[in-house]
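Supplementary Text 2. Reproducibility record for the structural model of the 283-residue chain.

All settings were left at their defaults, and a single model was retained for analysis rather than an ensemble. We include the record here because the model underlies the residue-level annotations in Supplementary Table 4.
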Amino acid sequence: MAGPTTAQRGNPGSARKGKGSGSPKPPKQPRSSGGSGPQGPGVQRLVRRLRHRGPVLLTLLAAVLLTGGGSWVLYGSSWLRVEKVTTSGTEVLTPEQVLAAAAVPVGAPLVGVDTDEIAARVRSRLPRVDSVDVVRAWPHGIGLKVTERKPVLLIKKDAKFVEVDASGVRFDTAAKAPAGVPVLELSAAQSPSGRRFDEERLLHEAVGVAGDLPEAVAKETVQVRVGSYDSVVLELTRGRTVVWGSGEQGEAKGRALTALLKAAPKADHFDVSVPTAPAVSGS
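Retained model, structure tokens:
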């Protein structure tokens, strides 16, 4: 009997190969036992946090750089420093007087200039200045806007005249009386009320009266004569006299006097001590 063929018997070698066919599997990597290694959960969590907070950290870093750079620009660089000082609002004073009194530190950082200190210097060195606004004019300037005191009354002292403003402040002395400003004459010593009202009180009374005068009347007022707190008389140009009375109801008295001057231009005596019943004579 014939033996089995080769095909029937098969190839033992090929059978063994078929059973274990395919590439050998790679060895398994050992699992990490904790976060101590470079690929541990602790490192991964840190990486995730940095990725999440990256924009915030970048923003903070930019803010720090900008703050430092901004401070340097404002204080350390030569870009924003005082180079020019200007003045406005002067009438009797000159701009040069204001600049000298202000003593603005030219060349200093503009942001560091103490504007309040400059204003205080101007007011203390120039009593004629009532107020002054000091402003920064970026990038290189300082502006000084001055408001001068205006005299409403003069006090004659020897051959000179002391100027008094509407607040009763004596702010300057002039060798010549400014035009259109009346001179004060106090004669309260002859009045019984002089013992109750001192010169300072009567001065303020006269200042109040002068401040209430309409502009057209003030220009024609030569003298304010005060005998007591309720006895104020105005001397106008062309020898005209006005009985004003006390300093009360000043605006009403001013309106009444203006009307009388228009109605009786040739009169030489006016009485507005009671503004609701003014009187005129000598017309």
